[in-house]
Amino acid sequence: MPKDAAVEEFARLVREVKARDGRSYEALGRRLNVSASTLHRYCSGATVPEDFGVVDRLAVLCGADGERRRALEESWTRADRARRPPVPEPEPVPEPAPDPKPVPEPEPISV
Predict the structure, then answer these.
(1) pLDDT in tens, 22-43
(2) Within 62-111, where are the H helices?
């Protein structure tokens, strides 16, 4: 299954931030309280984090400036949207049928 372009772009930016620092996934993960494999999945585009916080902390730890952090957040927002399944439109609720008019009871026949 081909990856979404937004996810690829996000992964590229995360890889750039990580590469500038030079530390291993393991070393960065320890500082961020995430596993090395989690960071690797972000960098490869296999996973998009549920929230931007860990990526922002990675950017700060690796010395990214405010402009780079904003670009990462914008890219994360697009990638996050791309990874979520589309929300189906709710089906219209049919209007209830009108109550049938009551049928009058026949008058008893007296004999």
Answers:
(1) 999 999 999 999 999 999 999 9
(2) 66-83
The encoded tokens of residue 52 equal 């931007």
CB within 8 A of 62, min separation 6: which ones? Answer: 17, 18, 20, 21, 23, 28
Q: How many CB atoms lie within 10 A of CB 63?
A: 10
For 45, the 3-state DSSP assignment is: coil
Please tell me the distance from the alpha carbon of residue 13 to that of residue 67, in angstroms, as a whole number: 12
How confident is the model at residue 3, as a pLDDT? Answer: 62
In whole angstroms, give the CA distance from residue 110 to residue 63: 101
pLDDT at 55 over 90: yes
